[in-house]
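Page 47, continued from p. 46.
Same chain as before, 516 aa.
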Amino acid sequence: MSLETVRGTHEVFNQSVPFEDVDLFGLDVALQEALSREGAAWAVERVREAGVVAGSAEALEHGRRAERNEPRLITHDRYGHRVDRVELDPSWHWLLDGAVARGIHALPWGDPRPGAHVARAALELLWTHANAGVMCPVSMTYSAVPALRADAEIAAEWEPRLIGGALCGMAMTEKQGGSDVRANTTRAEPVGGGWYELTGHKWFCSYPPCDVFLVLAQAPAGLSCLVLERGAGMEFQRLKDKLGTRSLPSSEVEFRAAPARLLGEEGRGVATIIEMVTHTRLDCVIGSAAGMRRGVAEAVWHARHRSAFGARLAEQPAMVNVLADLALESEAATATAMRLARAYDEGDHALRRFATAVSKYWICKRAAGHAAEALECLGGNGYVEESPMPRLLRDAPLNGIWEGSGNVIALDVLRALAREPDAGEAFVAECSLARGADARLDAHLDALTMPSGAWGARRAVEDLALAFEASLLVRHAPSFVADAFCASRLGGGGRAYGTLPAGADGGAIVARALDG
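Result:
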């Protein structure tokens, strides 16, 4: 029997078409509204262009190829000379260059008009659809600028270079300490003139091809922040074999008397680098919101094209409930990310410090479960590697770990309250702008308590995050979105997706989730 005969034994039908060559911005009504509402209406066309490119078949193929062809570390050349070079697929460079060309790495610093952080957040939300891995060096570069400003001379040298396309990484984590950076043992020995020599090992050094790195090390006066340009004395030992973001090279590095400059005061390393950490935590929220948005889009798209039991999936009540529930979570995350970005535009330090930590905990925590449920909407089609869903699921936990896992963030909220009591007040004042519009939110706000101890910190932070999300949706989203969110999230929660109560307008929510 010939191959042609075998191929002709059945007809393939009832298959969804790939979600590609779409205008990601044009299909995301919630993002469109937030971009204008939060002060970046001037960037609409710029953001739309990024959404069109990121949603193209070309961009998505680059994302898949960069994942398949993982980076390779070359430590020595053929003559035995140390080179420490990372080989990356051309698709990685296409994706990274595209992010830099659109200013996602430094837009608020190179074009500091009102709303620049909001515009950048929207660009990041869309470009992440193509590949989440490239956003690591992009995010670190964006976040490094505020930290570098602790030293006017260093900032004057490096800020223009970063805006121009140089990249900044970080090296904080060590084997024995993890999130407890004060347990670091890497040494910084002063050699005069503000210069130090670094000796030690870092278990995670993000994106080794970066031009410059911020490093935490023990100087004579204690843990300090230093600026290290990639070069002599910095030896990359291996690349990490990670669960997700496999296109991104993450490394272990050994410092052998590597020359570095002190940034900020000696012994005040955490206080110096916290500005970078705060901005990267914002990007963790944005990245998780982007992942949720992709999951919803793929699930709704598939449900509109796939039939089962005599009807389209998107017409069946049980599936509509799941899709609508996923869409609520996604819209709340998008609204939160964009509102946080405005706080950075406005220099609202009290709100941004506290709200970023609260939102980072909750939204990043919700991302993995959201990705799993979205994958399930596609059934077996979502479980195979031809689908984008396995990568989405693998990538989802990263933002919950990066810049502080759940316990670290919840405890950081406690510290923020102790150091800046007005931060909690500013947060509640923001949430209270929605008072009187929904009785369930009013009751939730009345019952709010600030975390006061480690045991109950997670639960208290969850309640704060839900108050923030609900307040934003009550104020800005259509009533059918806000009503369903408050009914399903306030006064309970913790159930599986697809458990929206009777009365929720699932059809309207799903239609809004993927307009068109």
